[in-house]
Every structure is written in C-alpha cells, then in structure tokens.
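Re: the request from the purification team.
They wanted to know what the chain is likely to look like in 3D before they choose a buffer screen. I agreed to run a prediction and write the result into the notebook, where they can find it.
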Amino acid sequence: MTSNAITNGILKALGITIGILLVLYFFYKIQVVIIYILIAAVVSLIGRPIIRFLKKRLKFKNTLAVIFTMFLMISLLVGLIALFIPLIENQGEKLSLLNNEELQGKVEGLYDQITGYLSLDSESLKDSKIFSKIDFSLIPSFFSSLISGLGNFSMGLLSVLFISFFLLKDSQLLQDSVMVLVPNTKEKRWARSFEKIKDLLSRYFVGLVFQILILFVIYTIALLIFGIDNAIVIAFLCALLNLIPYVGPMFSGVLMMLLCMISKLETDASGELINNFSDVILPNTIGVMIFFIIAQLIDNFLSQPLIFSSSVKSHPLEIFLVIIIWGILFGILGMVVAVPSYTVLKVILKEFLSENKIVQSITKDI
C-alpha cells in the first residue's frame, strides 16, 4: 500500500469522524426541536384512532377529521389548564404566605404526635437538630417555579400543536422524511415496518391515556372523600407518575401519603396543631392509601396486562426485563421510553431478520 493511499484513507476517516461529530453537535443544539417533534408524534399516534373513526364511520374528509380531532384535544387541554392553574396558584399563594418557621413548627408538631402515638422518644431527633437542616422553602419555591415556567410551556405547547396538526393531516409526512435516507431496494420493507409501528404504538399510547385516566378518577374520589385539600392536583400528579414503570407508583404512593398528612397540618393562634394525629391525620391517610392500593391492584392486574398484551404484543415478564435493562442503561428516561423503543426494535427485527430463530421467538405475536 502506497503512502498516498494511506494518507487518503486517514484523511477520509478523519473527514467521516468530523462529519459525524458535526451532525451530533447539530442534533445537540436543536434537541428542543427534536423533543417537540417526538411529543407531536405521540400526540398524532393518540389522535390516529379518532381520525380513523371519523373518516370510516362518519365519512369525514381527512382535513375536517384532523381539525375536529385537534379541536377535541385542544379543548381537553384547555379544560385541564383552566382546572389546574387556579388550584396551583391557590396552593402556591398559601405556601408562599406560609412562614418557613411556621411550616417547620407544624412538621415538628406532627412528628411529636407520631412519636407519641408510637410511644417513641421524640427528643433524640430534636436534639440532633435535623429539622434545622431541612430546607422548608423548597415547597414554596417548587410552586413558584412551576407557575413561572408556564410561559416556556406555552411556547412549547404551541410548537407541538402546530407540528401535530401536520403530522395528523399527512400521516406519511414523518415516514417520507425518513424514507429519503433509505435505499430504494428496501423501501417496501421499511414502509411495512412504519405502518406496523404506528398501529402498535397508537394502541399503546391510547392505552396509557386510559390507564392514567382510571388512576386519576380513583385517586380523586379517594382524596375528595377524605377531604384532602387540592385533591384534583394531587390525584393528577400521582397518576402521572405512573408513566414511570414500577418506580413511579412507589414515588406516587409516598407523595400522596405526605401530601395527605401535610394537608391536615392546621394550627391555632398559639401554633399548636388543631387536628390530632391519631383521630384525624392517621385515619384519613390510611383511608386514602387503601384506595391507592386498590387503584394499583386494578392497574397491575387489569390495565397494564391489557395494554402490554393487546397493544405491543409482549409478555409481561418480557416487558419487565426490558424496562429494568433500559433503566440501568439510561435511568428514569430509559424506563419511560423502554416499551415504545422495544416495540419499534421488534418490528424492525421481524421485517429484516425474520429467519433468525431468536427473532422469531420474540416476534411471534406481532
């Protein structure tokens, strides 16, 4: 091999490396746009069954069906915003007016009642001054940042809705953009893969919406029955956490329990707790958590098996292992995207490696 050939090879490899780095840097800089497109793609997959129903059953034209579907989604979103923003602002005002020392006093009073109820020594923890090390301003700061972030949220929302409209109007738009990079000899196989992926993920995301809705209704009923303040906001946050498989329900259970107990932290003019722990706080919290457990049982034994088996065509054990592996590799975000990404991978493997015995085994139901 001549020196010129070696030099050309090195320069070519260097050029390819620089090109890849530039492309990755470009994607890094426009990551917000990519996130908007991905969210819009999920929205379009959720709206896909509605458009199909309108076109097949009610004989709507495509554009009219898309406009009607977007109107339904926007109306639902506006309703949620109109419902939640006043509640969040109200809670934020309450917490911002609440003196941090007063909040600390309430928590310490609650601790005294819990340790007294359990016949434990409460002085040991107080002597360690652990309460003085806790930043009680985190709660008001959280709500303040949540409200102040609505401006950025509105900008992103408009972008997502705009992209979603065109993805719904032209369902092949995203597919055609990707197909430009596909060789002509493999276009048909990729086209079949895209259609299968859209059908499976559409059913999956619609199933997730119903899963969150069922949990939200049960949580709201439970919190309202026991008179917990801001029941709808708490129910929505806890239901939304279930989007994180396995870990989410644990977080939502702890969050619901803490918010239920804090909700009843009412003091008189002297700073003493009005509600007794054993008579009010504990029974209400136990009652809410019973409903929470019932909701989780319904979700684990009815909602999730229905979503995983009928939508993404995967065994629950298979899904469990995939979520754990994705979680180890990519953290919480990996657990959230594990099922959709695994479904996409299975469809592509079946289309291009259908002769492989392992692929046949994991894709036999697709």
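For the purification team: Residues 28 and 34 are 9 Å apart (CA to CA).
Please add any questions underneath this entry.
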